[in-house]
Amino acid sequence: xxxxxxxxxxxxxxxxxxxxxxxxxxxxxxxxxxxxxxxxxxxxxxxxxxxxxxxxxxxxxxxxxxxxxxxxxxxxxxxxxxxxxxxxxxxxxxxxxxxxxxxxxxxxxxxxxxxxxxxxxxxxxxxxxxxxxxxxxxxxxxxxxxxxxxxxxxxxxxxxxxxxxx
Length: 166
Known about the structure:
Number of strands: 6
Oligomer: single chain
Order of helices and strands: HHHEEEEEE
Number of helices: 3
Strand order of the largest sheet: 1-2-5-6
Structural class: alpha+beta
Strand content: 25-35%
Largest sheet: 4 strands, antiparallel
Helix content: 40-55%
Number of domains: 2
Radius of gyration: 46 Å
């Protein structure tokens, strides 16, 4: 039995030993692992003590209720809105004519405009029958009128949009 124990111990010593070059390589790997661990610990500390507090501060600032800069919007009256309608039909929609505009404010500088409109090309002159049964054309025109509702939105800088409401 002593022979068995000594043979086990001797085999353990023979197979458990490494050469000097392998031992030095293992020591170099261990030293590299220690240095890398130190770098990771340093990065962890900088993350914990520097980066995270800065991020927390930034998040707090983003979540703060911000004071809104109040800009006073220009107030347009119904008469000024009517002037914008005249501009629309005089420049952008010159082929059409309108009558009986009614303007109602729906919000600040937003108006609902109800009017009747017709195209100039559909108009025809009124023919008058005289007593002697002759006909004469007068200057009066007859149009086919259509009722429409628009939404007029006026910006502070005077630009506007005039779009169909429905």
